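Weekly structure sync - notes
Attendees: PM, LS, DV (DV joined late)
Agenda: review two folding runs queued last week.

Item 1: First target. Sequence and structure tokens pasted below for the record.
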Amino acid sequence: MSVNKKVFFFIHAEDLMSRCLWRKKGRKFNYDIWSAQHISSLTVKLLIVIVFCNLLVAGCGLEEYYVVEAPDRVLKQPDKDTAYDSRYFSFTTNETRNAGISSSFYFMGTAVYYKIFNNFSSADSIFNDVSNANTSDTYSAAINRLTNTYSFQPLGIDADTVPEVLIPSIGSDRDVFIRLTNYGDEADFRARIEIAGSETDVPKRSIPMSGGKRYSFDFGRTGTYDVVPVSGASGTDVDYNHSSSGFPAGYADKYFVDMYAVGVGRDTTYTKYYSKVLYLGRVSIDASDKNN
């Protein structure tokens, strides 16, 4: 992992340049030779500049910018028409290349962000914009678009608080499996998060209810937490993008969830650094069917 260190010194060189005389005679170039007095004066000035630079570096330190590498391997990327048995997300974390960036930098792990839509045209538009931002030299440009412009939310779990990173780093790359919804009652198709083959949590929306419980992605079922996203006069759920055009033709009562993964770290001042984002895909959730 690279650490870019930039130090800028501005030295006024006009006086020095004025001492160098360049004269052209015919086809030959003659150069005036500096006198010992000029050389001595220049040496003193250079020494002063060097001392000043050393004091500047010692007093202020070097400007450091840490580059966090994104997770970049998708194992399963569903789309809106993927069959129920394959409606899950899977990718590999990028912990190995983010380990040991610097003694003053801590790689926290991998966060996962999501957004719910009732129309995939809206999701497509955002996908294109974020993909464009992801090509920027500014690594955090895409995650800023996701969170600040489009209000993507960190994926929740059954906990009082939503974790800063869904997969805390242990320094080695691991495969991650995320199924948002319970499809039928079969164990193989239950909602869950698996890390390196071990089940860790059940994915939830980031919106909390009383008692710290969170809404599920099982839209349209009869459970207390299985409610559809809300949009109306009282407001719209922060994790929901509601299109006034309604559900697309042929997709009645179907919601769509887009997800992204991003690497997260911090320095000793707790300033956060983000990688570029990895698009994990899109799943549809049928709110009119228990086997959604």
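Item 2: Second target, run right after the first with the same settings.
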Amino acid sequence: MFRLDNILEDWATRYKPLKHDPAASAKHKTFFRVTMIDEDNYVVRNFNTLSSPCMAYATHIDAELQQNINRISYRHVIYFLVKQDTAPQKTPHTDELAATEARYETDDMVQDLLAWLIDLQRKAGNGDRTFVSPFFSLTDKETREGLRGLQLDTANWATLPVHWNGWQVCGLSIEQIVPRDKCINPEKYITD
């Protein structure tokens, strides 16, 4: 099964502003898997100790059938989080300026990720065997097909109007279209 979260974790280890280390303690990681950003999870419970910036992939599944049930459309949601400068500000204007700078930082990270994913799609489509990752393989058929199905040209994102203890959050939504296997797999059923 195609796992976008593994591809995103690989990006987080390569992307200098995040410098994710999967072997580090949770306090020092910058990539997380969460059900939803507003649910009770490690990220929400530990905003005061997280490294900034960081990102979280929502693991809930949001899908629908399309085109006479021949395809499935999945919606992937990725959150980028930046702690704004919370030093005492002299005026509301400077406080809003700090929040705005944090929001623009999340926007920059979204655009960097999309550019990287577009390049990765190209490499997968060209059969590039020079790209090496400990998280996934471009030679894997499911990975290549999963990357091909990402609708990066229609990705959308927005900063959230919620303010979690000085954190600014931007949610990125990416649609993925995959063919649907309509056959029954007899190996999944008990037969008499």
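Discussion on item 2: The CA atoms of residues 108 and 114 lie 10 Å apart.
Action: LS to circulate a short write-up before next sync.
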